[in-house]
């Protein structure tokens, strides 16, 4: 019985891995640029901020320099339970500082929901709502790209999330490698195939009418994933804009990274419980590969957990109990299959960096530590499973002040 369970689980994981690998191949190319439109859409740019006085000024400078008609966008910074000079700094740049105080409902999801209600009551109404984090920097053409997508019929759009500090430490380098991989071989591949893309928490654009129709309603620890699932469940498929770049600050230390990723995984478990089976059922009922793909993405946190448990069981059996006492999938396959599977995983990350023309020299040196970052997802996910009901929001402190010119010069 144990053999059957172990083999069955490994077969399921292997099939999903092959599925994802095949999908990634469709990110090898970039489609010809879509139709360009004159700037006609108006935007409300929302920035959720909690004690971000160290970095918010750089973003305000950055947003003032966007290559888009100034009369077509306004910036609203949600100063959420701030106890520092965030609001004062925002106002010094002529931007709107919207102060929110609610210690009982803390977190980005609640802040956005509050701000949208405020926005709908304002005299001016907008065509689109763009969301950034306070530590971000946006490419000058970001709004123009969002304008193009909205004019082309998109209702939810995710920009390309890049890393503004990949050389600061081996941890930020690991984040950078992961995001280059995700952007190129997950997001772009699905975009090329006309599938639904997933939201990444920042650099997002929403048609204002859609938000009015369905509301925000995403107040979990991973509000971006939650809203993605709500959209796909309703047949609204987010799109990916490869050319709409933004640069996000990543945590410098492993401790800060682990705390952030723990919050992500805790929230991911919540979303998986809520949306996996409804999406799976709809995918079968409607014969929709798009909904099946998103259902698999929702349950990915359980895939990581099961992979960790199977690996731990096999290791413990062989090293502590003089195993093996049960069969594994690879025991029934030629040895080269195991090496091929490992090699394919390594190659995909290197391939993504090559396709994205990564020029950061330190990042290539930090590659030797990248496996530590990948393996660390296992214990983090395991711990998140037992603490998933912890809804306490944890703030990631941002201190790295970087200007867009510095990022672009390092990128070459």
Explain what this protein looks like in three dimensions:
- By secondary structure, the protein is α/β, with parallel strands linked by helices.
- It has one domain: Spore Coat Polysaccharide Biosynthesis Protein SpsA, Chain A (Alpha-Beta Complex).
- Helices cover 53% and strands 12% of the residues.
- The chain has 15 helices and 8 strands.
- Strands 3-2-1-4-7-6-8-5 form an 8-stranded mixed β-sheet, sandwiched between helices.
- Helix 3 links the parallel strand 2 (73-80) and strand 3 (96-100).
- It is globular, with a radius of gyration of 22 Å.
Question: How does the SSE layout of this entry go?
Answer:
Layout: H1 2-24, E1 43-49, H2 56-64, E2 73-80, H3 86-92, E3 96-100, H4 108-120, E4 128-133, E5 137-138, H5 142-151, E6 156-163, H6 170-192, E7 204-207, H7 208-214, H8 223-233, E8 239-248, H9 254-286, H10 289-298, H11 300-320, H12 335-355, H13 361-366, H14 370-386, H15 404-411
Parallel strand pairs: 1-2, 1-4, 2-3, 6-8
Antiparallel strand pairs: 4-7, 5-8, 6-7
Helix pairs in contact: 1-11, 6-12, 8-9, 8-10, 9-10, 9-14, 11-14
């Amino acid at each position: 019985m144990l053999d059957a369970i172990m083999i069955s689980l490994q077969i399921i994981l292997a099939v999903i891995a092959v599925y994802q690998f095949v999908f990634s191949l469709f990110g090898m190319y970039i489609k010809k640029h879509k139709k360009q439109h004159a700037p006609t859409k108006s935007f409300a740019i929302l920035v959720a901020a909690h004690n971000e006085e160290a970095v918010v000024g750089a973003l305000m400078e950055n947003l003032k320099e966007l290559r888009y008609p100034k009369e077509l966008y306004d910036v609203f910074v949600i100063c959420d339970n701030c106890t520092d000079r965030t609001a004062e700094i925002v106002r010094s740049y002529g931007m709107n500082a919207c102060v929110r105080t609610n210690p009982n409902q803390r977190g980005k999801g609640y802040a956005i929901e509050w701000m949208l209600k405020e926005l709908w009551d304002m005299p001016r109404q907008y065509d689109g709502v763009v969301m950034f984090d306070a530590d971000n920097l946006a490419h000058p053409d970001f709004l123009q790209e969002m304008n193009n997508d909205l004019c082309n019929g998109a209702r939810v759009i995710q920009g390309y999330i890049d890393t503004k500090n990949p050389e600061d430490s081996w941890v930020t380098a690991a984040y950078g490698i992961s995001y280059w991989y995700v952007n190129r071989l997950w997001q772009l591949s699905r975009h090329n195939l006309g599938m639904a893309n997933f939201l990444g928490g920042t650099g997002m654009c929403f048609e204002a009418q859609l938000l009015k129709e369905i509301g925000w309603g995403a107040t979990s620890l991973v509000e971006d994933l939650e809203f993605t699932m709500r959209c796909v469940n309703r047949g609204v498929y987010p799109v990916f804009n490869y050319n709409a770049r933004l640069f996000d600050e990543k945590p410098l230390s492993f401790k800060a990274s682990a705390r952030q990723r723990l919050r992500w995984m805790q929230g991911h478990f919540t979303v998986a419980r809520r949306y996996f089976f409804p999406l799976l059922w709809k995918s079968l009922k409607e014969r929709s590969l798009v909904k099946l793909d998103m259902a698999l993405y929702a349950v990915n946190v359980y895939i990581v957990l099961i992979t960790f448990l199977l690996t731990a069981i096999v290791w413990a059996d062989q090293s502590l109990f003089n195993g093996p006492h049960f069969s594994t999938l690879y025991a029934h396959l030629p040895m080269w299959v195991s090496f091929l599977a490992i090699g394919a995983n390594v190659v995909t990350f290197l391939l993504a960096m090559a396709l994205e023309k990564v020029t950061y020299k330190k990042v290539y040196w930090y590659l030797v530590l990248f496996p530590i970052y990948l393996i660390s997802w296992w214990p983090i996910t395991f711990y998140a499973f037992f603490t998933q009901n912890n809804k306490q929001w944890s703030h990631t402190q941002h201190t790295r002040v970087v200007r867009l010119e510095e990022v672009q010069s390092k990128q070459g």
